[in-house]
Structure formats: structure tokens, C-alpha cells
Amino acid sequence: MAFCDTCIRTIDDDLIGDDGCCPTCGTQIADPIHRGVAKWFWFMVVVSVIYLGYRTYQGIEWLTHR
């Protein structure tokens, strides 16, 4: 949920337009490019890539020592 400082209310993400503006007053409240993608999602992507890279390294290391 986003908060509009002009209207002084919270706005559901589904009501925000594609341009990232408040449906009532038209104030820019969300970045239109990254709208709808939570920062925790990108954090989890980065952590997963690091983890899988480390596990791949462990697998290669294990294979070379057998």
C-alpha cells in the first residue's frame, strides 16, 4: 500500500495508475518502472543467486577431489 501525502490516505496498489499517480489527486506516489515489485523480492533473488553459486562451487570442489 502506498501513502499519498496530498490526500492524506493510503491507497491500495491496485488503484494506482500505470504512471504511478494517485487516482484522486494525480500526485506521483510510486515509481512507475518498479511499481509493484517489492524490495524484499530483489533481496531474495540476490541471496538465492549467491547461495546457488556457493553450492555450485561446493559441488565442483567435491567432484575434483573424488
What does this structure look like?
This protein is mainly alpha-helical. It folds into two domains: 35 residues, no CATH class; 30 residues. The protein is built from one helix and two strands, in the order E-E-H. The chain has a two-stranded antiparallel sheet with strand order 1-2. Strand 1 and strand 2 form a beta hairpin. The longest helix has 26 residues.
What labels describe this entry?
66 residues, mainly alpha, 2 domains, two-stranded antiparallel ribbon
What would the average pLDDT be, to the nearest integer? Answer: 84
Number of helices: 1
Number of strands: 2
The residue ranges in which pLDDT falls below 50 over 5 or more consecutive positions are none
What is the CA-CA span between the terminal residues? 53 Å
Shape: rod-shaped
User: In terms of structural class, how would the helical and strand content be classed?
Assistant: mainly alpha
Strand order of the largest sheet: 1-2
- How much strand? 5-15%
Question: The biggest beta sheet, please?
Answer: 2 strands, antiparallel
What string gives the helices and strands in order? EEH
> Whole-number radius of gyration?
21 Å
* Overall helicity: 25-40%
Task: Tell me the domain tally.
Answer: 2
